[in-house]
Design a protein that fits this description.
CATH superfamily of the largest domain: Dimethylsulfoxide Reductase, domain 2
Bound molecules: ligand MGD, molybdenum atom
Radius of gyration: 25 Å
Shape: globular
Largest sheet: 6 strands, mixed
Number of domains: 3
CATH class of the largest domain: Alpha Beta
CATH topology of the largest domain: Dimethylsulfoxide Reductase, domain 2
Helix content: 25-40%
CATH architecture of the largest domain: 3-Layer(aba) Sandwich
Number of helices: 25
Number of strands: 29
Strand order of the largest sheet: 3-2-17-16-15-4
Structural class: alpha/beta
Distance between the termini: 47 Å
Length: 753
């Protein structure tokens, strides 16, 4: 069955879905961006590159407009030159990013389809969102639970069955506004509210009490960032020591229970992993840990939920693995609403449970280059060409990249240690970027091709984990000379006589109909393309709770008949495979390992604040930074950093003041916001402010001073581990001081329309 929604009068702009109780203001801001001065007006070429400087002045140079014919010819010639001279492996087009919600105008798919006609490219795998999780979970639970949305009970089951949810990282307000592909109906927050009102106890464990929603039956326990694995392990120890662990479950469904118990008892290192031990690491009082353990032991349907943010840290595999160990010791896995959940509340679609409006996207063709780096190893790839990269047990030489091609992402927003990336970015011979705006990546390119915004083109949009599909019409003509990524790629392919091969001879409208046909093939009840277009949206009917899948239930019901796809067929609390890899930074069972940067380490004496850089409430990553709600929440045009009242007072800092955040990697300015919910010792600067260096001002390490409030000049380009190479952004220590008058005068120019 389908439900046909109307998107109201589309000419008035993006309207919320009629049944959406938590509509999202972000699309409104995208309309403001349409006319903004930051739009790229025509194809551009960097002057120094044209004169043959290769990369030397990249990021500090002037651009000159060129015609579309000249720009696309240059791109065609460069692709041909680099692939002929150096081989296609020398072209990096992992092109990670969240540009464009549309299914057809998905920039990355268009680019990859084009490059495969030129003989392929070095790609990337995994995500910044869930890099460590995607590698560790398959080792422990099997491949089928490794997807970002695969490992959580359905909200409908939580609402009915869960009596205690312990949520590490909690529920950051605003995060469920988003999903890859777009969100039509924002359901997660309502489901959580209903569960709490029904009587479920929710205990949020997080450095910020604001991560605990304002619903009944909610408690908050502050914890030092990056120490959750220690708390989770101490909870396991308590259950074992108090005879409350479900030994039968561990024996029947897990391997490695004894090895883990040996570690927890401290038989080898002499350190029992008790509540007192965890107190010293996490800052959570021992009595509180015991209270938590007791509550978990008493619960009839406990759920241990972890946000994705926990695995965007150093040694990020450990809390996920330890959570699976805890849920196993509670014997709560494979039952509705119980066990573990990863990413509930991180995006809207986790926990929706199906049915899902999924269908094939734009076909990308075949890439003969099989090499693909883990996506957050971008800096590593540029820094160490030809050297070995060990990833998830496999060793491969890093390619030597001559040409970087990006469409639909902003590495000078998403990568860590951007001052380092800025230096490494001088190495490729050519950088080509498709962008609607002068992003920090576009300003560091050699050829910049202006792209339409979603409001300037028709598309179909929807998350492949959700029930809805939208037909979004163009609201206005493309700004300036902007073209779609598809039109740009078609024009490039035409220089090599491959336009028809690229377009398959189809118009955009015919492509939309073809993609929609993919949905109808999977969901025959969907109406015709014409009807879909006329109504603006279609939805699959939500499944009855009884028909929703319960993760791991098939295995728990019949472990011999339906074993997991792990080497043992069972839940691996000890992994011989990982032991065999011999990584120094990820052992064979979950464990606590102190990271280089955390509040309990030696570096905290010099840099006593732990910086968290979560998702921005008021925009999607860096998109729309200078407009709408994002602009309205700036302080003097800069991103706001939040400190606890205690830390602000101790430094004599006042709200609204311009402050400087720094460590050994760099420094940035931000406006100060003071909070009474944030724990002392923690600073919060959301990601996404458009990176901008203040001319003539420098951090103490000599790198340029960033003046818009971009946290990634402070974060370390240090992976979660050499097992997963996930993004480790949340393991970062800093200090904060008042900005000097000189520094305070440095305003981010790109925010001035
Ligand atoms: N410190 C820190 N860093 C982080 C994170 C963190 O928690 N802390 N989170 C990480 C995570 S989870 C993620 S997912 C990444 C996100 O990082 P990105 O996905 O790279 O960030 P966006 O700002 O969404 O970048 C999308 C870019 O595409 C452009 N764009 C929009 N539409 C189109 C289009 O149709 N065509 C083209 N060609 N371009 C378009 C936009 O202008 C924008 O510059 O950031 C990561 N970085
Ligand atoms: N509005 C909006 N929503 C978004 C996005 C956006 O850009 N804007 N981006 C989307 C994307 S791409 C992703 S991947 C998801 C990410 O979703 P998440 O990774 O879940 O979100 P974050 O915002 O990074 O962090 C959530 C909370 O985790 C807590 N936290 C951080 N470190 C620790 C820790 O070590 N221990 C504990 N216990 N808690 C910690 C912080 O207090 C923070 O408020 O968000 C999505 N949602
Ligand atoms: Mo993400």
């Amino acid at each position: 069955m389908t439900h046909m929604g109307t998107l109201a009068d589309i000419d008035r702009g993006p309207e919320p879905y009629p049944s959406d109780s938590n509509p999202n203001p972000l699309p409104e801001a995208m309309l403001a961006l349409q006319a903004h001065g930051a739009r790229v007006s025509s194809p551009m070429v960097r002057v120094g590159w044209r004169e043959g400087d290769r990369g030397a002045r990249r990021g500090e140079d002037r651009f000159e407009p060129v015609s579309w014919a000249a720009a696309t010819r240059l791109v065609h010639d460069e692709l041909t030159r680099v692939s002929t001279t150096h081989g296609n492996e020398a072209i990096y087009a992992g092109s990670y990013g969240w540009g464009s919600a549309g299914r057809f105008h998905h920039a990355q798919s268009q680019l990859k389809r084009l490059l495969n006609l030129y003989g392929g490219f070095t790609g990337s795998k995994h995500t910044y969102s869930y890099g460590a999780g995607a590698v560790i979970v398959p080792h422990v639970l099997g491949q089928e639970y490794g997807g970002t949305n695969a490992c959580a009970p359905a909200w409908a089951h939580i609402e009915r069955h869960t009596d205690l949810m312990v949520a590490f990282g909690g529920f950051r307000a605003g995060n469920t506004r988003c999903d890859a592909g777009g969100v039509l109906s924002h359901e997660a927050r309502d489901a959580l509210a209903r569960a709490c009102r029904r009587g479920m106890t929710l205990i949020v464990i997080s450095p910020d009490a604001a991560d605990a929603p304002d619903f009944p039956n909610v408690h908050h326990v502050p914890i030092r960032p990056t120490t959750d694995a220690a708390l989770l392990l101490a909870l396991c120890t308590w259950l074992i020591d108090h005879g409350r662990a479900d030994r039968a479950f561990v024996d029947r469904f897990c391997v490695g229970g004894d090895a883990l118990a040996r570690y927890l008892e401290g038989r080898d290192d002499g350190v029992p992993k008790t509540a007192a031990w965890a107190e010293a690491i996490t800052g959570v009082p021992r009595a509180r840990i015991e209270w938590l353990a007791e509550r978990l032991a008493r619960a009839t349907r406990p759920l241990v939920a972890l946000s994705w943010s926990l695995q965007r840290t150093r040694f990020a595999e450990q809390p996920y693995w330890a959570a699976i160990a805890l849920a196993s010791h509670l014997g709560a896995i494979g039952v509705p609403g119980g066990g573990v959940a990863f990413g509930l509340g991180s995006v809207n679609s986790v926990g929706l449970g199906g049915p899902a409006m999924a269908a094939p996207g734009v076909p990308q063709g075949h890439n003969p280059v099989t090499k693909a780096i883990p996506v957050a190893a971008l800096g590593e790839m540029l820094a160490r060409p030809g050297e070995a990269l060990v990833f998830n047990g496999e060793t491969q030489p890093l390619p030597e990249i001559k040409l970087v091609y990006w469409a639909g992402g902003n590495p000078f927003h998403h990568h860590q240690d951007l001052n380092r990336l800025h230096r490494l970015w001088q190495r490729p011979e050519t950088v080509i970027v498709h962008e609607p705006v002068w992003s920090a990546t576009a300003t560091r390119a050699d050829i910049v091709l202006p792209v339409t915004l979603p409001s300037e083109r028709a598309d179909i949009a929807g998350s492949s984990f959700d029930r809805h599909l939208v037909y979004s019409s163009a609201l206005h003509e493309p700004r300036g000379q902007a073209r779609t990524d598809h039109a740009i790629c078609t024009a490039i392919a035409a220089h090599g006589g491959k336009a028809a091969a690229f377009t398959d001879g189809l118009t955009v409208e015919a492509w939309l109909e073809r993609l929609y046909g993919g949905y109808r093939a999977r969901h025959p009840e969907l109406p015709s393309f014409e009807t879909f277009k006329a109504h603006g949206a279609v939805s699959l009917t939500a499944a009855e709770p009884e028909r929703l899948t319960v993760p791991l239930k098939a295995f728990i019901d019949a472990p011999e008949r339906a074993p997991l796809s792990t080497p043992s067929g069972r839940i691996e609390l000890f992994s011989q495979a990982i032991e065999g890899f011999g990584c120094i930074d990820c052992g064979p069972h979950p464990r606590w390992q102190a990271p280089e940067e955390w509040l309990g380490g030696a570096l905290a004496r010099r840099f006593p604040l732990h910086l968290l850089s979560p998702q921005p409430h008021h925009r999607l990553h860096s998109q729309g930074d200078p407009v709408g709600e994002s602009a309205a929440h700036k302080i003097e045009g800069r991103e706001a950093v939040t400190l606890s009242c205690h830390d602000a007072d101790a430094r004599g800092l006042r709200p609204g003041q311009t402050v400087k955040l720094f460590n050994d990697r760099g420094a940035c300015l931000a406006g100060l916001s003071v909070s009474d919910t944030l724990m002392a010792g923690v600073a919060v600067l959301p990601t996404g402010a458009w990176l901008e260096y203040a001319p003539g001002l420098f951090a103490s390490n000599g790198s340029p001073l960033e003046c818009a409030g971009n946290p990634n000049v402070l974060t370390a380009d240090r992976p979660s581990s050499t097992l997963s190479w996930g993004c480790g952004a949340n393991s970062c220590l800093i200090e904060v001081v008042a900005a000097t008058a000189n520094e305070g005068a440095a305003r981010p120019a790109r925010h001035i329309d």
